[in-house]
Amino acid sequence: MNKQIGKGSSGDQENEIPPVQPDGEKRPPAVTDIIQQLGQTAVPTQGESNVYCLTIIGQIEGHLVLPPQNKTTKYEHLIPQLVAAEQNPRIEGLLIILNTVGGDVEAGLAIAEMIASLSKPTVTVVIGGGHSIGVPIAVASDFSFIAESATMTIHPIRMTGLVIGVPQTFEYIEKMQERVVRFVTAHSRIPEETFKELMFKTGELNRDIGTAVGGNDAVKYGLIDDIGGIGEGLSKLNALIESRRAAMTTGGMTQ
């Protein structure tokens, strides 16, 4: 004889049948799971706001898994978020919050290229720091802000681990470095000569070549557009959204 197990049964609660969602719908992921995995309180498909906030913090993790004690942003987590935000008609703009020490060069460039290729308005706010490969990500948006106390470290590409001492290796590093320089100068107002001068400056950083640029200096060099934080970022993003709406309305009336 089969025994029906209910909430009132003692000692058998672990065998209780979980409630079934109506119409076979899948349960949405718990908010705590989203915060833990993506650093988000909502994913683009669930948010009611027309602005999606994307956070890039810690070290940017690329093709190699970093140690568990490192605070990381995995680029394979960011790619589906950016695609979902681009596809969702309710999302009209993206606010990117950046506080990173850098990380994988190709992963950082991939994130920067995806942000730059979005059709919706984007605004970046550098809080704390946007170092190393975080610089291309910071300038990839339509408009960028930096907190006055934040810094950005500009330095040449570095490699760790086994390096084969042949000319081809150094040529590869130089070509990758040129990719970074071209992207930054194409998406900001800083001249290429100035950016390279900051990149190869000596005596500024301990045990390294490069320059630590503060918030005001980043704006002065033309690397970042303006000084500001979350409030200024949202105000600018809303203005860009309104401009896009007006352009689409005018275009539709013209057609």
Task: State the gist of this model.
The protein has 255 residues and is an alpha/beta fold. Helix content is 39%, strand content 19%. It has one domain: 2-enoyl-CoA Hydratase, Chain A, domain 1, CATH 3.90.226.10.
Structure notes:
- The protein is globular.
- It starts with 30 loop residues before the first helix and ends with a helix.
- It has one domain: 2-enoyl-CoA Hydratase, Chain A, domain 1, CATH 3.90.226.
- Strand 3 (93-103), helix 3 (105-116) and strand 4 (122-130) form a beta-alpha-beta unit.
- The model is unreliable at 2-18 (pLDDT under 50).
- The longest helix is centred in the C-terminal third of the chain and has 25 residues, at 230-254.
- It is built from eight helices and eight strands, in the order H-E-E-H-E-H-E-H-E-E-H-H-E-H-E-H.
- The chain has helices spanning 31-38, 75-87, 105-116, 134-139, 167-186, 192-199, 215-221, 230-254; strands at residues 51-61, 72-74, 93-103, 122-130, 143-146, 151-154, 211-214, 226-227.
- By secondary structure, the protein is α/β, with parallel strands linked by helices.
- The strands form two sheets. The chain has a six-stranded parallel sheet with strand order 2-1-3-4-5-8, with helices on both faces.
- Pfam families: CLP_protease.
- One of its GO terms (molecular function) is serine-type endopeptidase activity.
- InterPro entries: ClpP, ClpP/crotonase-like_dom_sf, ClpP/TepA.
Features:
six-stranded parallel sheet, alpha/beta, ClpP/TepA, ATP-dependent peptidase activity, serine-type endopeptidase activity, 255 residues, 2-enoyl-CoA Hydratase, Chain A, domain 1, 39% helix, ClpP/crotonase-like_dom_sf, Translocation-enhancing protein TepA, globular
